[in-house]
Amino acid sequence: MSKAFQAHRLDVAAFAQQRASLSDQDPLPRYERLASELHRPAPEAVVAWQVHGEQRTAVDGGSRPALHLRVEADLPLTCQRCMGEVRTNVMVDRHFVFVPDEDTAAALDDASEDDVLALAADFNLHALIEDELLLALPLVPRHEQCPEAVQLSVQDADFEAAQEQQAHPFAALAKLKGDKPA
Fold it and tell me: Is residue 179 a part of any domain in this protein?
């Protein structure tokens, strides 16, 4: 009999043992931390994901429950050059191996190409999806070519000329001093 799996309370061991699969397209606002990184609210945006359960050999040689996660989202981020919106496609394609406890996960994680996580009977797949998307965001999102010209200096070209045209506050004093007979 096949068990119905739920992404918000996933039994990873059973999911991997059955080599089950889940996929969905969630509205982006469901992922609050990710939504807070956007240039603007994007209720129309979706996070498309799919996960497959499998048994995978860990670096310690043991066969462990594992997930293969693929996620894709087209996000409206803020261009750090022009401060306008830049659409950025963010993709994640990762394997996660699960071990019995946090200590084992910490010991194996550094040596493993896959991420190593502690096994839980009610694993929250949505939290993992959000974490992975946040980690995949570009450090400095920007357009290849900004749609409008970007001012790259802090002053205008005629800044010096404007400074010279301003009246100097002590010019009148200097004139009075100069007019005084010695």
Answer: no
Tally the domains of the chain. 1
Domain that holds residue 101: 7-136
Q: pLDDT tens, position by position, for the chain (182 residues)?
A: 346 889 999 999 999 999 999 999 999 999 999 999 999 999 999 999 999 999 998 888 889 999 999 999 999 999 999 999 999 999 999 999 999 989 888 888 888 889 999 998 789 999 999 999 999 999 999 999 998 887 766 666 666 666 666 667 777 777 777 766 65
The answer to the question of residue 142 being in a domain is no
Cβ atoms within 10 Å of 122's Cβ, excluding its own: 10
Whole-structure pTM value: 0.79
Q: Tell me how far CA of residue 49 lies from CA of 6, 21, 69, 89, 159, in angstroms.
A: 14, 11, 7, 13, 53
